[in-house]
Model the fold of this input.
Amino acid sequence: MLSVLRSHAAARVVAIAAYVLVVEWTRALAIQAPGAAVIALVLGGAALGVAAVGWPAGRLGLGTSRLGLRLLGGVALGVVLILPAAARSGAAPMLPVGLAVAAVAVSIGEEIAFRGALYAALEDLGGAPAAVVGSTLLWTLAHALSHPPAFLGAVAAAGLLLALWRWACRDLVGPIVGHVIADLAL
Amino acid sequence: MRRLGILVGAAVTYLFAAWMVAPGFYDGFGPPQAYNWTCPPPQAGANVKPSSGHLDIKVINGVSDANSAFTDDGQVVIGFLPGTFDSAGKTTISVDIVPLDSCPKPPGISFVTNVYKITASAPPAKGKTAGLTLRYSNLEPDPSDVYQASDPAGPWKSIGRNEQAAPFTVDTRVDSFGYFAAGYPTASPPPGSVTLGGGQTLPIIVAVLIVVVVLAGLPLAIVRRRQRSTPADEEEKG
Done:
C-alpha cells in the first residue's frame, strides 16, 4: 500500500483527497453535537495535519527563509479575507478562548492539508494548474456540510486566493497566518 | 509580475464573492449549543422545535420588580429593570415569549433567527426600555440588526443592535413589545457598514486591498525570482 502511494502520484492524490474530505465532513457533523464543538475542531485540525506526514517541509511550502516577508504576506491575506465581513458588520464578537484555540488548530490543519499535502500531491500529478484548481475544488467540497450553499462561492474564492499565493510565492506560511487571522476574527 | 497580477485578480474575485453574501465570508465556527429552528436550513441536521417562555413579575408598591424572561432553550432573553412597566393597578405582570410557527420572509431582509412574539400584560412605562438578547446559529451569517414588527406580515423595522455582545448573540433595547427577529438587509449594506465618499465602499476597499497585496507579495516574488536558481531556493522545492 505504502509502496503504491510512493510510486504513483495519482494514488497519493486520491488517498489524500479522500482522507481530508472524510476528516472535514466528520468534523462538520461532530460539531453539531451538544458540547462537542471545541473537541471536534481540535481533533479535526490535528487529523488534517496528519495528511502532511511523509512530506518534506519544503514541498509543503514551509520554511524559515524570508520569514518576515512570509508573515507580512500572511497578515495581508488575513486582511483581505476578513475585510468584506468587517466592512459590512462593523464589530464582530470575539471567539471565546476555547473556540479560539480550536479555530487556530483547524486553520493550521486545513492549510497543511489543502495547500500543503494535497497541493503537493496534485502538483506531482499535473503541475501547478492541477494543484491550484484541484485543491480549490476539494476545499470547496470539504466545506459543503459546514456552510450554507450561498457561501460556497466565497469559500471557493478564498481557497483560490490561498492556493494562488501558495503557487506564486511557493509559500504556505502566508496562507496559514492569513487563515488563522480570518478564523479568529470571523 | 504576471503572478502578481493573477494574485491581485484572485484577491479582487474573493472580495467580490464575499461581498455578495452579506455580511461576508466566515469560516463557520459554531456555538457550543445547537440552535432550535422553526424552519431549519437544509444543513441543520436533526432539529428540536424552539421553546417558549413565561414570567410573572411582581409589582411592589406600584413598581414592577427586576427580572428576566427567557425561553426554555435560552434562545431569547429579555431583562427588565425595576419600574420598567406601567404597572398602575396591577399586582403582577405576565411576560410571554412564543416562537412564531412560521418563517416570514419580508422583502429586503434575511432573518437568521426564528421570529418570536413577546407580549406583556402591561406596556413599558414611558422612557423605559428592556434589554433583549437573541441567540443565533453558526449556520447562518451574523445578523447586523434586530428587527421588530407589530404583525408578522410586517412592516418590519430595524431597531439596531449593541456593538458588544457575547459570541453568537445579538443584544438590543426595546421600548415596546411585538414580533422580533435578528437578520440583515439583503438589498443594501447595514447601517454599521463602512461608507466613504458617498457610499462607494467596494471600489475603495478593492483599491486598498490591491495596494496591500502588492506591497506584501512584491518583495517575496522578487526575492524568489532572484534566488530561483540558487541553493537557497532548494528548500522550497524540497
